[in-house]
């Protein structure tokens, strides 16, 4: 029993995939876990972008400049508001488009995992990883930052026409709320990057130990020695 356990511990990912116990293989395959992880990210992007883009469009439609009836509005402030509003809606719609296009394909690949799971070199939809990461960063990073900026501009435009003190108080409160948001976002992405680097290093070390245990490195050096002997004979 201990001998069998040691062999499985030194086995590589390819050996586990090609094992006869397919039920366990499907549950433990790292590629399948990665697909489910990407699926959850795209579902989060879909919900967040749809919600925030809807709020932004409603805010644009419902914005009123009645407070500036007695005096001219600040053109620079309105220009900033228009630019931020367009960026906010466009960014979230782009993330929503990516998630809507990739998510059905991802679900289809997960349902058909029995077809490709036994091919160790098969990584379905790996070329779309960059688009999934872009959609995730756009929706949860840039999109939320633009939403907070949009909220600050709306508060200033709506309130400053009646009371500058109330407008300044609203902006200060929004900054106090936004600072933890920025700190959490930066810290989260830094820790996420470190975790991924650690996991990749652990996988490489596991593969290297498995290759050394099976003597793959020694087998690869044999042809080189044979070629050297042939050249010496010539």
Q: Overview of this structure, please?
A:
- This protein has 234 residues and is mainly α.
- The protein folds into two domains: 133 residues, Up-down Bundle (Butyryl-CoA Dehydrogenase, subunit A, domain 3); 56 residues.
- Helix content is 83%, strand content 0%.
- It is elongated and about 85 Å long.
The helix count comes to 9
Structural class: mainly alpha
* Computed CA radius of gyration, to the nearest angstrom: 28 Å
Domain module count: 2
- N- to C-terminal separation? 52 Å
Mean pLDDT reading: 75
Assign an overall shape: elongated
CATH architecture of the largest domain: Up-down Bundle
Order of helices and strands: HHHHHHHHH
The counted number of beta strands is: 0
Protein traits:
234 residues, mainly alpha, Butyryl-CoA Dehydrogenase, subunit A, domain 3, 83% helix, disordered N terminus
SSE topology sketch:
Blueprint: H1 2-10, H2 13-17, H3 22-28, H4 30-62, H5 75-111, H6 113-116, H7 129-159, H8 164-213, H9 216-233
Helix pairs in contact: 4-5, 4-7, 5-7, 7-8
Briefly, what is this?
The protein has 234 residues and is mostly helical. The protein has helices at 2-10, 13-17, 22-28, 30-62, 75-111, 113-116, 129-159, 164-213, 216-233. The radius of gyration is 28 Å and the shape is elongated.
């Amino acid at each position: 029993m201990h001998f069998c356990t040691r062999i499985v511990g030194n086995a590589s990912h390819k050996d586990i995939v090609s094992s006869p116990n397919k039920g366990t293989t499907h549950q433990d395959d790292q590629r399948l876990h990665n697909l489910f992880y990407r699926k959850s990210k795209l579902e989060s992007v879909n919900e967040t972008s749809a919600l925030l883009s809807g709020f932004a469009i409603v805010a644009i439609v419902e914005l009123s400049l009645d407070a500036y009836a007695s005096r001219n509005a600040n053109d620079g402030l309105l220009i900033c508001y228009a630019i931020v509003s367009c960026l906010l809606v466009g960014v979230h719609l782009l993330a929503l488009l990516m998630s809507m296009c990739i998510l059905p394909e991802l679900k289809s690949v997960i349902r058909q995992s029995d077809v490709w799971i036994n091919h160790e070199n098969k990584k379905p939809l790996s070329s779309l990883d960059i688009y999934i990461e872009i959609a995730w960063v756009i929706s949860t990073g840039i999109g939320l930052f633009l939403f907070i900026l949009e909220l600050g501009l709306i508060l200033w435009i709506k309130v400053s026409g009646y009371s500058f003190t109330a407008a300044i108080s609203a902006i200060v409160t929004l900054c106090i709320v936004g600072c933890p948001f920025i700190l959490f976002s930066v810290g989260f992405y830094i820790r996420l990057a470190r975790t991924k680097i650690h996991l990749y290093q652990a996988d490489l070390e596991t593969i290297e130990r498995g290759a050394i245990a099976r003597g793959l490195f020694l087998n690869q050096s044999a042809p080189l020695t044979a070629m050297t002997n042939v050249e010496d004979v010539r």
